[in-house]
Amino acid sequence: MSVMTKCIGVAKKVKHRFDAQIKANTPVYVSPVRRVERVKTGERVVAMTFDDGPCRMPPNPVGSHEKGLTMTLVDILEKYGARGTFDVVGSTAGNYPDEAGKEGTAAWGGVRYDHYPDFGHDAEGGAQACREEIDRLLKGGHEITSHTYAHVLYGPKNVVYGKRKYLGDIEKAAADLEKLHALLKERHGYTIRLSRPPHYVDKISPGLSSYDAMALLGYQYMAASFDGAGWLPLASYEAEVEATWKPLERALAEDPDSLCGQIIFQKDGFNMARRTPIADGLEIQLKLLADRGYKVVTVSELMERSPFADLGAGDDAFEAARDLAARGFCPAYRDNTVRPDKPMTAGELAETVFGWPAAKKRVERIVRKEGSWPSGLPADHPYGAAVELAMEKKCVLPGGRFDPSAPVTGDDLQRYCEAFTGKARPMPPASTRGEVLKLLAQIL
Fold first, then answer.
1. Contact 427, 307 (CB under 8 A)
2. Which of 111, 294, 399, 429 is least buried, going by the fewest C-beta atoms within 10 A?
3. Each residue of 301-352: pLDDT tens digit?
4. Which of 23, 36, 32 is nearest to 348 (CA)?
5. What gap in Å lies between CA 368 and CA 306, rounded to an integer?
6. Can you point out the beta strands (E) in 175-293?
7. Contacts of 181 (CB under 8 A, 6+ apart)
8. Considering only CA atoms, which of 399, 388, 401 is closest in space to residue 359?
9. CATH fold for the domain made of 44-303
10. Could you give phi then psi for residue 53, rounded to 5 degrees?
11. Which conformational region is residue 357 in: left (phi greater than 0), alpha (psi within -120 to 50 degrees), or beta?
12. How far apart are CA 244 and CA 228, in angstroms?
């Protein structure tokens, strides 16, 4: 293992620890876009995602593989009756001028930008160039998700990617997502529903992030909970292959149900040493899962079975929360938890009902640098736009400053009921989020 590889590995561990500390101290808000890492289920179902493709170049080393990397992965998946989720890019051919980075480092495919499948070989990858590969994926029932069109960072990532160019603009980020969305829709008749930002960089500019860009497209945020490895170069190809399946084997040996509802991260492309250990590791992974009775499904199918991280079939309020989400409401927090036993607040109620249509209004207000909402909430408040729509619908009474942290009352629910049903009827006080969600499922 090279010094650079060790440094990258250490940097990622430090970053994960730092991110965990930030996460523990950051308030979580109800959101139309939910970060889906894994879902709660007792079924032995798991999803596999493959980033950065499609890739028409052959695996490296080639070995017994005769097709391009993506088609090699598809053949292996289908041999086990598995369906993958391919998180594709559109094309990195426009990411020039640039220069090739040093092999074995994070800049292996480009110093200023990413180039897939490799620097100078952009025409061999991406949905724009690989029409046949996309058609084959769809024919096999696999899922296509958005890894953005050009795979340019949304914002700066000084650790590891300090020299990278980035968008830093919500309109550019949304346009890049829309470009790939239109390509799949117009050329293949396929609608993308999930997205993962390049290198998991979320912040775009002050007050705006990848969640806002995804909200404009109607996407959910597809993350992952289990690292299938293969992206990090090791001392040998054999060691890299083992790294793709050994942690999986260990996890299943310790607890055969540990992978239930998890999303596995993989790579449909070369690692930093320009090798593709997933080409030989995938079949071992699939055999390990099959031996334990697991079914590999797409991320969307996983979410259809159980959409949330903390509520599963049979739990109180699960059916209500799932029904509301399916009808375009927002019953969960950004971290994909519902937290049914937590008190429901007035701001959460407004966001639950008006979150999706409010997303665009919020972005527009921040971009135009306008002041606070009539409710008194700041322009960038997560619930500001939703409260504004609730006022327009007379679900929230005008006048005075709105307190988003106030507990929901029976009078609040009565106004929502009257606004959506046209009938005024007393509503019982509902102290918990689960109780409110069950009432909303009836009146909305």
1. no
2. 399
3. 999 999 999 999 999 999 999 999 999 999 999 999 999 999 999 999 999 9
4. 32
5. 38
6. 194-195, 203-205, 208-209, 220-222, 226-227, 263-267
7. 146, 191, 192, 217
8. 388
9. TIM Barrel (3.20.20)
10. -95, -160
11. alpha
12. 5
pLDDT at position 9, please? 54
What pLDDT score was predicted for residue 286?
98
| Tokens matching residue 308 | 């949330």
pLDDT, tens digit, for every residue of 80-113?
Answer: 999 999 999 999 999 999 999 999 999 999 999 9
pLDDT confidence band for 14 (50 / 70 / 90): very low
Helix (H) or strand (E) holding 244: helix 237-254
CATH 3.20.20.370 maps onto the chain at 44-303
CB 192 within 8 A of CB 184: yes
Q: Would the pTM count as exceeding 0.90?
A: yes
Q: CA-CA distance, 240 to 164, in Å (whole number)?
A: 26
Q: Tokens for 374, please give them.
A: 């009539």
CA gap 128, 434 in Å, rounded: 45
DSSP 296: E
